[in-house]
Amino acid sequence: MKTQKHIFNHPDIRLMPKLYSKVLVAVDGSEFSIKAVEASTRIVDPKTGVVTILMVVEPQVMNTYQPFYDTFKPAEQGTPATILPTPLQKSRLKEAEEVVQKAREIVSSAGINVETKVLEGEPAKVIVEEARQGYEVIVIATWGLKGIRRHILGSIAAKVVQESPCSVLVVR
To answer: Strand, helix or coil at 72?
Structure first.
């Protein structure tokens, strides 16, 4: 059986009739998100387009009901908590800045205008809210989980696809 090449591996991708002018790329620092960044360079108009690299860092919160106030965990919906500027959170934000700068280098080396953003919040929600700022397409990576593992772990990409105000390109 003959396998078909994926369109983004095709050398004439720039001959596609529709190139986007405002692309949002959600990254998380994984090798999969680097593939999403690379894919974005092939769907954006190189003359007038802008790629925005976005990394969302979930805030670390302190559960105010816990007896030990140095216990930190990710935010849980409906749990009374206080967001604190912890050393861990500051470190995570610094790492996020490094990730978006690496992604910036990939896009700018392709000769494309690029912006970067690091925001805090629940990733899928923040990505969708940012997309409402006039983006034509979101490019996001997925781990490619299947079956019950996907349902147990959830999927940021799946949530973004469901809630997005624009097209979403999911890259594996």
So the answer is: strand
- What confidence category does residue 5 fall into, taking pLDDT thresholds of 50, 70 and 90? very low
The total number of structural domains that make up the chain: 1
91 phi and psi, to 5 degrees?
A: -65, -40
Backbone angles phi, psi at 11, to 5 degrees: -65, -20
Q: Residue 101 and residue 115: Cα distance in Å, rounded? A: 10
Residue 64: its pLDDT value, please?
52
CATH code, domain carrying 138: 3.40.50.620
Domain of residue 144 covers 22-171
Residues 6+ apart with CB under 8 A from 114: 50, 51, 52, 53, 104, 107, 108
Q: Are 15 and 45 in contact (CB under 8 A)?
A: no
